[in-house]
Amino acid sequence: MEKHDVAIIGGGIAGLTLAKFLAEQGIDFVLLEEHNGFFKKACGEGITRFVGGYDFFDLYESRAGIEKSIDETNIYTKYGVLRLYMPVLMTDKEKIESELARQAIKRGADIRMNEKVAKIEKGENFILHPQNIEAKLLVGADGLFSITRKFLGLKKLRYAVAVEGLSNEIELDVDKIHVEMKKSVVKYGYSWFFPKKNEWNIGIGSLKLNEFKKAFNKFKMKYNVKKWKAGYVPVSKPVKPYGKNVILLGDAASQTIASVGAGNMPSMICARIAADAIKKFAIHDFRDIDTKEYEKALHNITKMLKQEHNLAFLMHFVIRNEYIIHKLLKKFIEQASQYYKKLERGEN
Predict the structure, then answer these.
(1) Structural domains in the chain, sorted by start
(2) Overall pTM surpassing 0.85 (yes/no)
(3) Helix, strand, or coil (residue 68)
(4) Is 245 strand, coil or helix?
(5) Bridge partners of 192?
């Protein structure tokens, strides 16, 4: 039986960020990723630079995979264009995840690809099958349909459905992100146009599957995309992110900004916080692990994510009038723009 102090299930941006920081601290762990490559989840490839007092570059520590920085997002509603000032980094997501893996491996991480965990057993420690790996602490960074969350007996998450693809034929301002929030385009969701270095990442998503299907059938006829990639985004409030000697991370704990379906930065932030908690456990050789300390340390980021969830619920399910939604968005965007401009000036 192969033994480790920590086993991480999932090698997306959450698991890889955690692996990087654990390796930096010299903690014994293994990361198991079911796929044989990175960037398997549909994503617009834009990463909000500043979230919850954290800067992406402080967590990532590289420029690899960063294609351009965009400060303004145009949001199109039935009643006009709203302009949000918010620094967003356009990326090559596959390169971002590959770079995180490179950083982790350079620090001594044990990352194993094409290793799907089919079963978790609990005795004195955890045993992962079919790998026959034993671990004192288990981290589930294994996405929306997390086997780790299922093992803990937690309920299924609500999710949105989305697709994305690459196009060279979009005639919009390449220095801005463009988002359509119109019921005539898609109900209970939005479409996006993200300018990359030499092409556009475009896509559409909805909180309701039947509305997604109808909208996507029209959307795909308007734009020339060779291959669409589909995926699911958790939109539940953040769930309890721990169990006895277990930590949940990223999509597995619904640590996403539900109003815009963004999970990259929240996952990285929560991974940083998880690494600090695990470092404390390691000092005592993983005896008397109190994973509730991880939840306590997440308080501020969890509070923000719950507020974003409430905003999304309000816009899509409570308020049905598009004019009122436009006015609500306008107020929110004005506040958010002021916040990011203060950050740029170095103000708290």
Answers:
(1) 2-344 (3.50.50.60)
(2) yes
(3) strand
(4) coil
(5) 179, 203
